[in-house]
Amino acid sequence: MTSRLERSRTRPRSLFSGSRESRLAPYLFLAPFLILFTIFTIYPAALGVYLSLTKWTGAVGQEPELIGLANYRRMLKDPSFLTSLTNTAWLAVGAVIVIVPTALFLAVVLNTHWIRLRTFLRTAFFLPIGTPTVVIAMVFIVLYSEHYGALNWMLGLFGVGPFDFTGTPAFVKPAIVGLLLWQWTSVPMIYFLAGLQGIPPSLYDAALVDGAGPWASFRRVTLPLLRPVSLLVLVLLVNDAIRIFDQIFILLFFTGAPYQTSGGPGEQGLTLVLYMYRSAFRFRELGFGAAVGVSIFVLGLGIALVQLWRFGALRKEGGGAGN
């Protein structure tokens, strides 16, 4: 009996110490994830970087021809790339300026206790996120129609219009932002609503005792405490704006050049992803398209890091965002 007790006391009790098998145990548990992550993320990313350095049309039997950074130099000199970059920046800024205040306003309204049917309204505002993008784009095609669209019908009541919102260069980007406003507002609204519900009511009571009105309380209590949520919303919105494709592709389908990948009249709806799609699949230049894709990834990552740094998320504790 004594020998058994002594052996049990001397036996290793931790998976992370002792035998070689015990030290390998954590890696065996992680192996399925690491294998799948390598196959479906690391390998495609590495292949994309490699293809961006080649000239390749994807034809059967054709091997990629290594040409170095020629695709990137050509891309920077292409006026269409610069146009797509400008359009994407315009849409990103427009989405932030329009969607963030709208989402915050709706969240504040839905967080009040005096409004009726709050649960119904929250569900109604969240419905667009579950609607397929194709359906949304088709609905807005009808809404923006010059001849039978509801928007032109309402403008006609005031003696204005009609306008071809998707066929006139000056109206293309505002029309896209209008679609995004309806489709994307729900998610930031839910984030803001969750942030508002996490603010202790005692802070508003203290502000009221100090003589702060509703606007002062909102500016000095609500906005500072919503800073982490605002950072998340900004990063997600800008990232989505950089990657936007299907809404514009369908919305401008009937107003584009041959193969419907021009980005609408005057390329006013040509975004980075649509430019990549056009280069790779319309012109059959997969190497050049891969270079555009790598550039989009680097651009999105860089903007996200700048936003995180600007809000102080990448700084050490004790260093304010303004330092």
Please give the count of helices.
Answer: 15
How many domains, as an integer?
2
Give average pLDDT, whole number: 82
> Strand-residue fraction?
under 5%
What characterizes the major β-sheet? 2 strands, antiparallel
**H/E series, N to C?**
HHEEHHHHHHHHHHHHH
CATH topology of the largest domain: MetI-like fold
Low-confidence stretches: 319-323
Distance between the termini: 67 Å
CATH H-tier superfamily of the largest domain: MetI-like
**General shape:** globular
- Rg over C-alpha atoms, rounded to the nearest angstrom: 27 Å
CATH architecture tag of the largest domain: Orthogonal Bundle
Question: Can you describe this structure in just a few lines?
Answer:
The protein is mainly alpha-helical and 323 residues long. 67% of the residues lie in helices and 1% in strands.
List the helices and strands and how they pair.
Blueprint (H helix, E strand, L loop, with lengths): L1 H9 L9 H32 L2 E2 L9 E2 L3 H8 L1 H33 L6 H9 L6 H12 L5 H7 L12 H16 L1 H12 L3 H9 L4 H12 L1 H16 L3 H6 L20 H11 L3 H25 L13
Antiparallel strand pairs: 1-2
